[in-house]
Amino acid sequence: MRVLLADDHGIVRRGLRALLEEGGISVVAEAADGLEAIRLCEEHRPDLLIVDIGMPKLSGIEVAARAQKLDRPPGVIILSMHADESYIIRALAAGARAYLLKDGTDEDLLPAVRAVASGKPFFSPAVTSLLVEDYVRTLQKRGLNDSYHLLTDREKEVLHLLAEGRSNKEVATLLDLGLSTVETHRANLMQKLNLHNTAEIVLYAVRKGIIV
Amino acid sequence: MRFRTWPVAALGLVSLLALIAGSMLTTSRRAQEIYAQLDQLNTRRQEVDTKLRRLRSDVNLSGIFVRDYLLDVARERDPEYRRQLAAFRATNMATVDELQNLAELHADQMLSLQTKLDDYWQTFDPLFDWTPAEKILQSASFLRREVVPRREAVLAIAQEIEELNNANLAEQRAEVTRRQAVFRADLLRLLWRSLLLGLVVALTVVFRLRVLERRSEQQKTIAQDAERQMRQLSQRLVATQEDERKNLSRELHDHVAQVLTALRMELGRIERSKPPADVRLGAAVAECRRLVDQMVHTVRDLALGLRPSMLDDFGLQPALEWHVRDLTRRYGVDVELTAHGDFDALPDRYRTCVYRAIQEALTNCIRHADARTVKVNISGCEDRLDVSVIDDGIGLEPTRRHDGLGLRGIEERVKDLHGTMTIHGATGEGTTLTIRLPLPPRIMEVPLARAAG
Question: What is the value of pTM for the model shown?
Fold first, then answer.
């Protein structure tokens, strides 16, 4: 697997690189700012982009978004100091597949790399528990019932697969359905759960504990 | 002791008025005097004239009467003539006495007049002893020799007295005129003095007023400058504090936390190193990692507490949403945040002001008001931003209304942006804080230059 590493701190890059190499993963290039990351991405066409969320010139979120526009977009792992959904939801919306808290990188980086490599999303356990905690508290405070039970079985299946990062087409193949049917299911479940984009679907799934 | 103008001005004005009043009184008194003198002079002259005329006419009449007597030869009417002549003489003498009183100045002439008159009248005394024959024989010569010269003498002296009287009048008139001139000069002098004094008083007062006005103007300017400087200073203070917080927060986040991350990874590497380190070293490294983890959390909390990165990375609403989540996590308070409007283009000063205001209000709700639920509303339109924070806590006691630096600081920030802040809340009825900020006409600040941290 070819990995591109982007972080503006040399010592952090060194630590990450060592960590990856321990796991037998080779780093094809290192970038110290956002623009360099994009340039190297175009140059090296890596399978995986590990990018710090806060970088000079171009933020990690912006790098993730631009990387998605390449012909063969790499899987993106965002590294961040922020355990807050304002960052997480933007990272997901920009196309990131994994969101790692930097202080947990030591344990989480290799599992995240493996998850993303196999097309699954990954979140630091600390992030997941935080999101779930907030969600549960919100539900308790508002006294609102979760609308998850309003979904049909089919819609639940579609939700799971979408949350795992499958495209509509993949979902259609896996469930043996027509593409337009999947799209209808998707639209319905989004309306029922009051979700507006894929990032929110993923976030919802994380909060519900559907995916970890 | 400071020099005071008003007693001097008052004194000046009072003396000016006294001078004017005094000169008016003196003037009228002296004018009256002069008129009286003139009047008296005229009256006296007229009287003297009248008496003299009577004297002359009496003398003339007596002459005619004597001639009549001399021509009358019948003796039976003698006593009648004698009596009438005596009457003429008495009247004549009385007139002379009166004249003497009036014209005492011409004592010599008067004495001579009297003598001449006595002489004149005495000439007639022997006439009444005359027989009719004597009358016929001596009359003409008597009249010619005795009466006419004496009569002429009397008339001459009367004439002299009249002339003297006229001369005297002219002299006295001249005297009065002289006095009038003196009086006029005095009056003029007095006028000039009043004018001068008035001028001095007026100039002093005007000058002093000018000085005082200028001084008060200066003081007003100084006070305004001082106030402006205070405002600027407090504005700068707030801005500087915010900048410091931002820098410190970023520094903690971008450097301290990164180094700690690297440190943690290094420690992990030591732990996983082959061959494995001995047990005691392994335990020490694990403890170090625990400490580093603790430190990372502390640094992260510190950074967020100083200034949440979301405020600069994503804007007002995400920052407020984070803050509300954070408060709920920490204190279990139910905060309901509703926002209407687009706050992305909000200039940094406004963003910061609103964030800090809500932060402070929420802190108060939790720390002092003992609130369970808080409603935070922000609504923005083209030219205005309205913020309200409503809690269900114990309400504000009047004494605590402006306590603490927090709310006052917020009020300063709000005022700097020409906004208004109000706090309502009776004891036991919760508290409502409202802020209204006028927005500048669409200053497009580069929104969120650093789009993630």
Answer: 0.62
